[in-house]
Amino acid sequence: MRGRRHVSSKVPLADLGEAGERLCARLGDTRERSFHRSSRSSDGEVVSEARRLVQSIAGARAHGWDDAAPGASAVCESIDWPEHSRAVWAASLREASDARAHAGEILVGEPGDRRHAVIPDAPLFSDARPNADIFSRR
């Protein structure tokens, strides 16, 4: 990276093996947000080591890694996708179970008055009432 701009291709950390893990552990300036972790270093020695490692393993796929411009930095990013999925699932269940926001009357309106319903054109499934299964919670 130069400043905040990516000037090289990203290389999957898994492709770099244990050497890549050790290199990422040496990077400073670590920031963590939710499920995303980013470490960065502008130390010339660390950037050179990263360049050598990527070039030796990724070869021609490593676009932009041959440039040792001043101000370059090495960045290691990771996202915990399984944990992200678990958290999204839990939040979805929490939101969906809030009867104040998802009660049948809110979703399909009162009988005869559907103007303020979330789903004003809900189909009739049974009991001649819009989406009766919403009200019976099935």
- Report how far the terminal alpha carbons are from each other: 53 Å
Gyration radius over CA: 26 Å
Q: What's the rounded overall pLDDT mean? A: 79
Tell me the fraction of residues in β-strands, as a range: 5-15%
Based on DSSP secondary structure assignment, what is the total number of beta strands? 5
Largest sheet: 3 strands, antiparallel
SSE order? HEEHEHHHEEH
Spans of 5+ residues with little confidence (pLDDT < 50)? none
Shape, please? rod-shaped
Describe the 3D structure.
It is a single chain. 11% of the residues are buried. The chain has 138 residues and is α+β, with helices and mostly antiparallel strands. The protein folds into two domains: 13-82, no CATH class; 94-135, no CATH class. A three-stranded antiparallel beta sheet has the order 1-2-3. The chain has a two-stranded antiparallel ribbon with strand order 4-5. The longest helix has 16 residues, at 81-96. 42% of the residues lie in helices and 14% in strands. The chain has six helices and five strands; from the N terminus they run H-E-E-H-E-H-H-H-E-E-H. The model has no long low-confidence stretch (mean pLDDT 79). Strand 1 and strand 2 (36-41) form a beta hairpin. It has helices at 13-26, 44-58, 81-96, 99-102, 104-108, 132-135, and strands at residues 31-33, 36-41, 74-79, 124-126, 129-130.
